Amino acid sequence: MNQTGKSETGKSDMNLVNMNDRSDMNFTQLYKSVLDQDRAPVVLCGLDHTVLYMNSAAIARYARAGGAGLLGKSLMDCHGAYGSEMIERVVAWFAQSADNNIIYESRNDDENKDVYMVALRDEDGALIGYYEKHEYRARETATCYDFEGGSL
């Protein structure tokens, strides 16, 4: 693997993570934990728009739309005609090129955040799904390294 994170074949090579002994490592659990710990909503969808995963922040955020009950359902059922059309257009754009991986979706001034749609790809660059990424722009108010303050 070179410094760009790509192998000599040019493919992304996440399997070459520098670990001494990976025999007991379950990377699926590690990756899921990263998503579970994110304070922003994370909803992963397959190419047929089925909701495959929601972290607890997403379940809480979308509680009025069904929360965890959205798992296994079509994301399109939660959107109107315009939203569904834009999702279809973005997924088609993702499919056009392995370089098409993120697109700005919207701004929410009330929450001081920007929202993006992000392509999910396999190790060969094939499109396998997508998710919505929320990036909050507000300055963190927690005290640095506040071990006594508990979780954020």
Can you describe this structure?
The structure is a single chain. This protein is an alpha+beta fold and 152 residues long. It folds into two domains: 1-37, no CATH class; 40-136, Beta-Lactamase (2-Layer Sandwich), CATH 3.30.450. The protein has helices at 27-37, 56-61, 81-96, and strands spanning 43-46, 51-54, 102-108, 113-121, 127-136. A five-stranded antiparallel sheet has the order 2-1-5-4-3. The radius of gyration is 18 Å and the shape is globular. The protein starts with 26 loop residues before the first helix and ends in a 16-residue tail after the last strand.
Helix content: 10-25%
Biggest sheet strand order reads 2-1-5-4-3
Run of helices and strands: HEEHHEEE
Counted by DSSP, the helix tally is 3
CATH-defined superfamily of the largest domain: PAS domain
Terminal-residue CA separation: 36 Å
What does the secondary structure layout of this molecule look like, with pairings?
Elements: H1 27-37, E1 43-46, E2 51-54, H2 56-61, H3 81-96, E3 102-108, E4 113-121, E5 127-136
Antiparallel strand pairs: 1-2, 1-5, 3-4, 4-5
Short description:
This protein has helices at about 25-35, 55-60, 80-95, and strands at about 45, 50-55, 100-110, 115-120, 125-135. By secondary structure, the protein is an alpha+beta fold.
